[in-house]
Each structure stands twice: as C-alpha cells, then as structure tokens.
Amino acid sequence: MPTKPDRRLDGLDVYRVGGAVRDARLGWPVTDVDWVVVGATPEAMRQRGFKPVGRDFPVFLHPESHEEFALARTERKSGHGYTGFEIHASPSVTLEEDLARRDLTINAMAETPSGELVDPFGGRDDLEARVLRHVSPAFIEDPLRVLRVARFLARYAGLGFVIADETLALMHRLVASGEIAHLVAERVWAETEKALGEPWPDVYFQTLDDCGALAVLMPELVADDAQLDDALGRLQRLPEDIASHEAAPWRWARLVEHLAPERRRRLAERLRLPKAVSRLAEQAACTHRLVHEEGAVDGERVMAWLERIDAWRRSERVPPLIALVSLDDAALAEDLALAWRLAMQILPKALVDEGYQGKALGEELARRRREAIDEVMTQAR
Description:
By secondary structure, the chain is of the alpha+beta class.
C-alpha cells in the first residue's frame, strides 16, 4: 500500500501502523490510515503544517489527507482502568518501543511509506495462522484490551481466527483481578457499539461471557444462560431494510428485548446508553411482548402496542417494527400492517369537519382507530 512522496514528510522518519497494515494483508477493507513518526518533536510537526489534535499525547493531522500522525511513545501503568497510564513521547522513543505497547501482534506491525514491512513481534505469522496473540505481558495492564480482543474476534471469526490460549488466560486474569470493573461506562459502550457493527457480533458477547467479563460489565445479560443463547442467536436477524449504519442499535435492541423492564433499564443506566439506543430497545421489547406473550393478539393488545411506541406521533417507527415481527410471524405482521394502514386513514380533520372538538375529538379518534384495528384482528383470528 505505497504512498506517493509528500514534501511535508521530508526529513521525518514515518511508518504506517496498526489496522491499515493488518487489514491490507488480510484483504480486508482499509478505512483509516494511521502513522507513527519517530525522532520528531511537536514543533517539527507544526512547522510542516500538521495540526495538533492529541489531548493526552502528541497526535497531528496531515494538512491535506487529514490522516493521523502520532509521535512515537511509550506507556507506563500508573493507576486503574484504561486511562491509568503515563505517556512518554520524545524523539528518543524507537519504533519498536512504540509497537511494543500495542495490544496484539497483528496490530503491532508497521510499514515504511514504500511498503516495507517492520514486524518485530511476529504479527505476519499470526495473521497467517489466524491467531489473536498479545504482544507482551503488559497486556494485563489495560482492561480495555479484553473488550478489544473480543471485538477483533467478532470481526475476524469468519476468517478462522482464534484467541491464543495464553492471551485468553491473561483475559481471565484481568477479570479476576478486578481491573475490568474500573472501565468507565462510556468506554465499555463505545467498544460494544463497534462490536455490534462487526460481521459476527454474537462472538463478542460470547467471548466476554467465556472469560467472565460479561458478568461484571453487563450482569443483566447473564442471569439466564438459555436466554443469553437465544438473544445471541437474534443479533443477526434484522429486517432487510435496516441500513448497515443502523445495525448496531438494532442489534442491541434484539439482544435485550427479552429482558424484564427493570433489568433493561438497569443495564441502560449501567452503560449510560444514548437515549436513542435505549428508546429503540424499549420499542423492540414492546414488540417482543406483543408477539410472544400468551393469548391472542387482539385489537386491545395492538392498540396498546401502538400507544407504547408512540406510533400516532412517530409513525416512522411502525414499519421497521412490523418488519421485526415478520421475522417470527409473517401472518401477524401482515395483519398489523393492514390494521395500521386502516387506522392511519382515520384523520382528525375529518372528525373536526363532523363537529368533534377538544377531548371529544381525541376520544372519537381513538375509538374509530380501535374499531378499525379490531375489525382486522378479529378476522385474523
């Protein structure tokens, strides 16, 4: 993946690093390119027009490509969690020292701008062997790496990747030590959201469960192993018209739709979920109950479902949720679609023209919509 010469790089010792090097060798799409600069100072970068953006360590954006260029650095553990590190960046830090702080060997490879590989930790061999292996014992200093390894496995499991036994053992140790509990909620969700967008998101949660991390970070999911297995099986079952960029919140909704309301709320609070994600999970849960609770799905239940998802004000919510129903019960989905279409044809304006106003208008509108829904659902039974 050679890069054309750039006058701004003259005199700088730069290397392409991390995911771009890994994914190019896997034949995986390369979306971001990051660089490490060895032997430079922040002033040297600014003089070449690079824009400083790093808050905790020196990172710069190329003035034209906007790719990230970070000064080579080392890290030393100084506290709990993934933020408990002292960063040292200076011209004396070597490329190998910078690569040694990375989590996995497949992420600790570098390339020169002309494409020459620098691989001090055997990342290429592990790529070929399809193994996720830690770079050094320092892996155990950062609990976030448990989630990152699980996320990488969720990305590459279909290619035959596995976690090295010794790396899995360190993941277990990180959980047993209590370090995993020091991860802040926002960072746990950030990694989880990325994992939900990977090709095999169920692998992420299964890996966290296998090493004990899921019970610490999301205990509401592990109260019942059978329910967890069912939930993981639902992750890939989404309505066809869900766009790829929307997959993560929908997959989360499918994962938690079976949980009792209080458990689902506790989990949302524990992870400090974005409101949009929590709302979608609530809508999916209402839909799950509509389909799976005992008894006939009659007009009363359908009307209550529409009200719970705020369908009359947010009509755009209804079609994808009906599509969700179709995955389990195609006939019910057809009935819901017809009932919804007929109910929506009853408009307030027509009732105003008949003389209804105020509270009476709202009551009559609800009555007629319920009547239309009842007719469809009665015929369906």
